[in-house]
């Protein structure tokens, strides 16, 4: 075949892959930062700004492994060897079917899995092309992925529960919880950096080969680097936290690395209930004045651009959730503030992990079509993923989060269980440990499953099963179940409509 006869398919897959990445960002990235925003650690604007960087880096530096699984690990692409253009069409229709479903689900506030969606779409397309025999149903294909859907939330829930229970009994429940928390923070900093540095080194940069070291050596090197970072956190960061939170000193962020060497800073007076009430009243009056003020053309443009980050998503005043939130035990406020800062780091790790794993959902079909368009041949089992493919889809993820991610953050938020900084950080760290490991072995697990399982696991640590919003969990689980057949049906119908349409001779 002359692949450039089908340049229009390459252009279409570019558009549809970006749309799929957009839906991925709007739906799945909310999972990475929902706990941080719902606990009040980050504002929605701050979460979006951080995620734009971490999602892009995770996708660009670690995204190629799972892209290979998505593109060639689900169906037997050798059946398309005599008609590579048919595989181009199939992958184009698959990513269109996936994007349509994920964006629609996001508009309804349903936290679905983009991994489920693209997997179902590719299966549906392959069945429409060559029947059920063209799909790799065994453990080297679909069964392996399906297994991960059930195993990943369980593993993430167990890991997050262990992290929170250790924190609960070693730190939160003690009378000197703040002092213990200062000692624990550097340990968590060490763990978060250790995991991510290990996989960055072992995976290698896009377009290059991973370093030829044993995994044991890689773990040792990353451990040494992370230990150094943890030591710095103990010397500088913990001291900065003690002075800022316990001593109420006006410590700026840039003072972290000079905190042991500078004198006492001005003391910030404690905020009273009257101060909070007065601030709220002033804020309400200012908001009312802004609302009544006629909008200029520039104001209208700014409102449209920043609509995605100017949303309320925490659900703290929802009366239907009051009983669920009341069942969660509350801990010392100053100690919880310690975990606000560490939760930012774990949120970054979770977002980095999401980018590394879920960018494959859009990149896999794109890389397959791109290679066929270049060579005119069906690629082998391992598709070489171009760096620009990763960057292109990573940008789509960022745009989706910034403009439409608030829908799912609002749907999750505090809806599953009451979230505090200590609980949120445990859920996020457990999720990142699960997902980055899956990314390393090329297993496309679902971020939705992992973070939901982690939140449920942490919620059960309250010792009261009614501290979980089981209705919300049921809706979420149902959305997982229906995603694969719906996306598969959409993709299969689209492919059949195009491939089997009459041709004018």
Features:
mainly alpha, 505 residues, 19 helices, phosphate transport, transmembrane helix, Phosphate transporter, 2 domains
What structural category arises from helix and sheet content?
A: mainly alpha
What average pLDDT do the residues reach?
A: 81
Roughly how much helix do the residues carry, as a percent range? Answer: over 70%
Shape: globular
The number of distinct structural domains comes to 2
- The run of helices and strands is HHHHHHHHHHHHHHHHHHH
Number of helices, where a helix is a run of at least 4 consecutive DSSP H or I residues: 19
* Distance, first to last CA: 19 Å
Q: How many β strands by DSSP?
A: 0
How is the main sheet built? none
- Rounded to an integer, what's the Rg over CA atoms? 24 Å
Task: Please indicate the percent range of residues in DSSP E strands (runs of 2 or more).
Answer: under 5%
Low-confidence parts, pLDDT < 50 over ≥5 residues?
Answer: none
Function: Sodium-phosphate symporter.
Pfam families: PHO4 (PF01384)
Protein name: Phosphate transporter
Main location: membrane
């Amino acid at each position: 075949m002359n692949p450039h006869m089908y340049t229009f398919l390459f252009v279409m897959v570019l558009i549809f892959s970006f749309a799929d990445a957009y839906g991925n960002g709007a739906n799945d990235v909310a999972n990475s930062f929902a706990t941080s925003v719902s606990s009040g650690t980050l504002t929605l604007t701050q979460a979006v700004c951080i995620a734009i960087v971490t999602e892009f880096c995770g996708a660009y530096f670690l995204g190629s492994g799972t892209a290979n699984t998505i593109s060639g690990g689900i169906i037997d692409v050798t059946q398309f060897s005599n008609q590579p253009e048919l595989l181009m069409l199939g992958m184009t229709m698959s990513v269109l079917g996936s994007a349509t479903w994920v964006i629609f689900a996001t508009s309804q506030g349903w936290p679905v899995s983009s991994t489920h969606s693209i997997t179902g779409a590719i299966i549906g397309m392959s069945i429409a092309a060559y029947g059920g025999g063209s799909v790799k149903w065994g453990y080297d294909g679909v069964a392996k992925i399906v297994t991960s859907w059930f195993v990943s939330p369980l593993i993430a829930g167990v890991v997050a529960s262990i992290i929170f229970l250790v924190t609960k009994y070693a730190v939160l429940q003690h009378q000197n919880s703040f002092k213990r928390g200062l000692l624990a923070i550097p340990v968590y900093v060490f763990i978060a950096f250790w995991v991510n540095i290990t996989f960055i080194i072992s995976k290698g940069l896009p377009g290059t080969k991973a370093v030829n070291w044993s995994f044991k050596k890689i773990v040792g090197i990353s451990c040494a680097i992370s230990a150094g970072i943890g030591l710095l956190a103990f010397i500088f960061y913990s001291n900065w936290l003690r002075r800022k939170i316990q001593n109420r000193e006006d410590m700026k962020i840039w003072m972290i690395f000079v905190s042991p060497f500078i004198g006492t800073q001005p003391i910030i007076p404690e905020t009273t209930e009257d101060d909070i009430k007065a601030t709220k009243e002033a804020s309400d009056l200012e908001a009312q004045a802004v609302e009544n003020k006629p909008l200029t053309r520039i104001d209208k443009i700014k409102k449209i651009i920043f609509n995605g980050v100017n949303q309320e998503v925490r659900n703290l005043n929802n009366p239907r959730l009051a009983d669920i939130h009341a069942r969660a035990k509350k801990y010392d406020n100053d100690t919880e503030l310690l975990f606000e800062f560490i939760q930012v780091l774990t949120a970054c790790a979770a977002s980095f992990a999401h980018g590394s794993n879920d960018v494959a959902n859009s990149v896999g079909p794109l890389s397959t079509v791109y290679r066929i368009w270049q060579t005119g041949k069906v690629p082998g089992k391992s598709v070489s993923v171009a760096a620009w493919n990763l960057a292109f889809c990573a940008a789509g993820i960022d745009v989706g989060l910034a403009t439409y991610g608030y829908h799912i953050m609002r749907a999750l938020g505090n809806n599953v269980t009451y979230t505090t900084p200590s609980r949120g950080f445990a859920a996020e760290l457990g999720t990142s440990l699960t997902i980055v490991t899956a990314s390393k072995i090329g297993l496309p697990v679902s971020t939705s499953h992992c973070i939901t399982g982690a939140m449920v696991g942490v919620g059960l640590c309250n010792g009261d099963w009614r501290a979980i919003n089981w209705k919300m969990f049921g809706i979420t689980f149902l959305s997982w179940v229906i995603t694969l057949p719906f996306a598969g049906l959409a993709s299969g119908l689209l492919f059949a409509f195009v491939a089997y349409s009459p041709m004018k001779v």
